[in-house]
Every structure is written in structure tokens, then in C-alpha cells.
Amino acid sequence: MERLKAMCEEELVEHLTVEAACDILSLADIHSAEQLKAHTLDFIMLHAQEVCETEGYERLVRHRPHLLNECFRTIACQQLPLRCPAPGACNSNASSNSNSSSSRKRPRHS
């Protein structure tokens, strides 16, 4: 069964389109297809403007918004790789994030 899953992932990667990217990302997340998810995130990063105009993007916003965070972090890590958070840092629970962010002082902008 794992081999079949891998073959399906490879096929989806080879045929990624702007229109299907968000739906494929969602499916990859649901089925823990990490390689497919990584390839799809890279594809979305390269075609972000076009992807944001699709119906799949709207479905992602409504039904799986946590994946938008992953997309954003992927883009940020490509631009500033030395400041990229440790793997899994995005998945920490909300209470630990709120505690750490509330203890930091934010600079004021005039």
C-alpha cells in the first residue's frame, strides 16, 4: 500500500498546476504525504500570486488555514534561511506561543 501511495504522490507532483495546488496541499496534509506536501509548498511559493487567485486557495483559507501558515513560513525561510525556525516550531501549541510572544516587548513605531 505504501508503494501505491508513493506512486500517486509522484504522479501528483509531476502534474501540479496552479489551479490544483491548494487542493493537493490539503490532500497531502490529510494523508501525511510529507514529500508531496513539501513539493507542493515549493510549487505554491514559486506561483504564489497566481495560486492566490484560485478557488482552491479560497477553500484552503476556509477549511485548512493552518496550511497558509506553512506556506508563509516556506516563503520566509526561502528569503531568510538563517532566521528560519527549527523544524516543528510551527506545530507547537498555541498556549506556548502566546506565552513566549507576550514576554517579548515590541518596538514602538512613531
TrEMBL record:
A GO cellular component entry from the record: nucleus
Intracellular or extracellular location(s): Nucleus
Region feature (Disordered): 90-110
Key word Nucleus present: yes
Keywords assigned by UniProt, alphabetized: Nucleus, Ubl conjugation pathway
Family membership noted in the UniProt record: Belongs to the Tdpoz family.
Protein name (Swiss-Prot/TrEMBL): BPM/SPOP BACK domain-containing protein
Origin species: Hydatigena taeniaeformis (Feline tapeworm)
